[in-house]
Amino acid sequence: MASRRISSQPELRRYSIYPDRQVHFNEAMEVDEYTTSNWQQSESSLNSPTFSYTDYSLSPEPYQRKYSTALKVLKPFRPRSKDGKMPINKLGFFSYVFLTWMSSLIWKTYRHREEALKEEDIWACSNLEDANLNTERLTRIWKEEVQKRGPEKASFFRVWLKFAWTRILVTLVIIALNAVSTFLESGYLLNLIVQYLESEETDLWYGIGLVASVAVCQLVRATSFCVIIMFGVQTGVRFRAGLLGLAYDKMLRLKSVRGKQLSELITIFGADAYRVFLNNVTFAYLLALPIYVVIGTIYTYYLLGPWCFTAIGIFIFCYLVQARLTTVVAKLRAKTLKFTDKRVRKMTELINSMKLIKMYAWERPFKAAIQEIRKSEKKYLFLSSILNSISTAVIPVTPTLSSVATIAAYRAAGNELSASTAFAVVGTLSFLRVIVAFIPFATRTLGESKVSFARMKRLLNADEYEAPSDKCTDPSLAVEITEATFVWDSAETNDESKKKHKKQKKEIISSAEGTPTANQRRETIHIQNMTFKSKKGQLIGICGPVGCGKSAFISSIMGRISMISGHLAVNGSVAYAAQQAWIFNGTLRDNILFGKPYDQERYQNVLFVCGLQPDLLLLANGDETEIGDRGTNLSGGQKQRVSLARAVYSDSDIYLLDDVLSAVDVHVGRHLFHNCIKKFLGGKTVIFTTHQLQYLKHCDEILVMQNGVFVERGKHDALISSAGYYDSMMKQFHQVTDNPSRAAPPDNIKERIIDDEDQGSTPQRKQENGVQNGTTDKKPEVGKLHKEASNKGKLTQVEEMQVGDITWGTYYSYISAMGGICVALFVVCWSTLTSASVVFSDWWLSIWINTFYTSSSMDSSNSTTVQNVSLPLNSTDHLITSENPIFNSTVTDVSDSSTELDFYLTVYVSSMGLIIVMMVAKGFIGATYYVRAACRLHDKVLSNVMKAPMRFFDANPPGRILNRFSKDLDEADVFLPQLQDTLFQVSTSILVSLVSAVVIMPWIGIAIVPVAIFFYIFKVVSSVSVRQFKRFENITRSPLLSHVSTSAQGLSTIVSFQQQNNCIKSIRTFTDVSTVATFLMETAMRWIGLRLDLAASCITITTALSLILTKESTDASQAALALTQCIRVVSIMQFMIRVLNEVEARFTSIERLHQYEKLESESQTFIDTPAETWPNEGRIIFSNVQMKYRDDMDPVLNEIRFDIHPRQKVGIVGRTGAGKSSLAAALFRLNELSSGHIYIDGVDVAKVSLQLLRSKLSTIPQDPVLFAGTMRYNLDPFGQYTDDVMWAALEDVHMKDKVKQFDNELDFMIEENGENFSVGERQLICLARAILRRNKILLLDEATASIDTATDAKIQQTIRESFADCTVLTIAHRLNTVLHCDLIIIMDAGRVMEMGSPQDLLSDPNSYFNTMLSAQTVKTPSP
Q: At what angle are helices 1060-1109 and 103-111 packed, to 10 degrees?
């Protein structure tokens, strides 16, 4: 990585390699020499389909002398690291403890605060924190756990404990040191100083010694606490890196990732990763619990004897209440996450299918579906928020409640209580506040982490992909299947579905004889009793009707379908081209090379035989043009040919090509088959499925499949002579392709076409030289394939990172979502009143304690000395800080009457009741408005995303959008409310403290001013770095999520091409950058926290020393009051600065959501409102239409002019990439026109609302899209049609019988993207949707490309009958599907080259259409 520099201190620069530079699948991660050598050694085994967990360890013995590096930190000073990596493990003791190594970066970040933080501005990930080492270690621990306890009883919680065990023990020791120093400083020593000031003691050195002791304790407390947190942060980023690495490695071992499993993976990489990290930080509080209890119990027992157990009992009771509430919250959180997963799953589906949703004008039902899930999620968020507030309400009242109960009981028993004893008791009970303050948050985090651990365990225990054996019984065989039964696993991962699935497997095995029922097959798509053998070098073609199991057979060869009986062996490397091409975000060259080294000659030959050379001339930067995720800026045919080129370039032994000719036109199809499949892959084993029956006669063997079994096999002539199913298919094919009325071209034209083997870019072109065995006789010119480097080839936009302060617009966006400024002020005021009620109870307690004593010199003005014993807090703590009353005066014991006791106790109990009521009310109010704000933000962002134009989805990878709806929204849902609640209460406490301090002693106000200035300066400096690191951390999550999502979609392709190594390197590079960002943000929080702690300590010590030195001239009561007030104000102020910084850092997530509130929107305005019956005729006029996908791109449509009359049937043909699908984009206004107009029945479509326009048009897209849900929901999401109408539509597309065989019929559940249907069946269901809509205009975009010829003929008949009164535009590659049309439009390079009736075009022997049709129907010889 470019961030590895000579100097260890990063330098801010004005340019960045991240995230502009994307790490793609074929891009190796730069590591040091030692790591590189180890990667190279394990690369071959890692890329194997069955690579083991330990193949990529960084060293043979990575844990030999494993503590040597950590122990070196104990050296006081060490030379500065020069390797450019984060120096956390190469620091000296003082640099580690005081975080001085961060100072340079923080100050530089502040000086360059107007510039966005880039990857090269910070260090690279250190070796011990990187993903490689920690993934290997976590993997080893998990394997040991599984071996010891078995997969079901294995606990990922125990794995975490073992991973962090040593560091936990070290943390325990440091916590003990921190607890002792905190107790001495805040309780014991401070009490001695007060006693000294009130006594007649004149030994000055004794007083100075006490102050020095306090200084040492404060230094130890502040630094030890910083070390505890940094230790936890370091452990957390290591465990997080290992967790993400382990999850991704497991994903690559799965058979498939779809449905719930994919959404759970996204959650693991988003919210779960942060929670397990946070758990490592907060777990220290749980460890501190017994230490604090022991110290507190011993000291209070020393002071009060057995009466101490009254206070300890109340603390334990409050803790149990907290623990119970926390348990309930954890359960609610688990329920919340179920809906979160479901929502993320639906969002993923929506983003991936946005084009179809827009064309169908289905934004409203999809938005409603997501909002319905969000509503259920909101219910549990609301309950969790209320219980959190109630739980938090216990915190401030516990110390004072226990103080009152203990003192009252102690006094009621007739015991005398001195001032010193009362002071010490209350101070110690305040010290014990950690039990109820820190523990609930830590327990809650641990509970949420256990939910994450359970999710991780489910993933790790999922069935893994098993590569087929390579042991064929005959060495001459490439693929061998013997009596095998394959079952396609269910996408669901819950136990009930697994049991159901196992039962179905047993049924299938028991019914080994005969053909399975359709319902049985559909529930678990399977192939039964399959026997198949392919010799090396054979070309095998597979055909059959739609849904017969061709794709399932290809998947079974790769081992992607579970084999429950029989034998499968694949002898050789496999290349796979999927029916729905998988394209990732990278350059076109990246997609073809796919991790293989660049061989110019082979690369150019592959471009030629795959027909991509003409496309490169059309792309902005040739093969360096960036391709969007899922190939968003490529046509269907281009995507298919890129996928094929990737397979061909891999130079594998066996090629599995799943209907790769379906998306290309006839010229390109012929070129691909003869030049690529037949010649270039000559000598290779090729198994390909197809509906293009004209090519089967050139195959060495033909297999005919029906209902999951091969019903016929043999050569073309033999199958024809047998007059079986294949013969009937061929007759049907020739019947629909032969048109006797067509004028035959002259002999010279026919001869020219017979020899035509070119790429089909121009019918008149001729390629005289063939290709054989991977070489071409005539090399294409390389220079013609590249254009001058230009930004036009850049598609994906760099994710924008804000700079400077959080804008007022961001805060106002959140306030508006709450309900407006008035609502926000109401919430703040109620929080202030609640805090004030706590202050009153403390004040009343001090008054009560004051009645225990009398003093002739006592003045009412000094009767309420209040001290806050503040514990240091981590940036992630959500502690409600409150004051604890201590009265200090000259000690004179007096007796107290029961009447006075009852009076003070009654008032106090009443105030405590008021506090509880107000706290609960505050919980309801806060929960209502905070959850409302998060939900309204979600709804607004969702609405804006759905209104965004298609170019937004082309330019932003899915992971980037999902990041907003997962982790950023999680911040708004969970963390911000807690932090804001804390901030309001702390601010109120400071206000009350300052007012009371200044009223009692006005001269304190003079000291407050410089303190406030000092803290403000530190706040400004620190907030810049914290905010920028948080922004950077937000952005680093997007590549992680995008990479996971993309890898899951292309899992079969990645594994078949053995590219796991490159994928793992990429994900770990992304993880390492994210690790550094997270670590630096938390370190910056501790950097400022430590300095404020030390500054507060200096001020406190200076004050104490001044009082000691002026003991004789200062009133003792006032001196004690000044000291305690100083400690109180300063400690709360430094805590407030830390909370303020974190609130601001968390608001960067609101800032990112706010960015999506300002997205460019599709035009929502309209000028013209046509009649309700519009369009009633269906006339379409294109008038000088020009269209660009983006302003900086070349036009994809140029001067398009034509007039389509009502009810005409129009065929639109042309080579792949000619602009046919762009016509559809223009008609549906997916992109606005650069110039020109489109009229429908005389109405300019640009002046009509998008919702109305799209709802009045019907389409069947090139890539069939089905959604997770019932068949009914997929056909009719608005619920507009009756069952009878839907059954009629299914009958029209010949799917009724199949759907009837399902148990649930129309309520049968369809998986994401229709995974439990074949691609052809998906197209038929999409056609049924169009029939239901019954609109006057229908656009078919390659709608029957994946359907067999016989079914296609029936569908064409259905279209002619069902849409006889409609205008039908058919974009087609099978020319026979448009021969019946009234008008043919031939396109090339975005222009209309030719148009007219089929008869007119065919009568001209030199017409484009005549030449294209002849190329499809003339019997071509086998080259």
A: 100
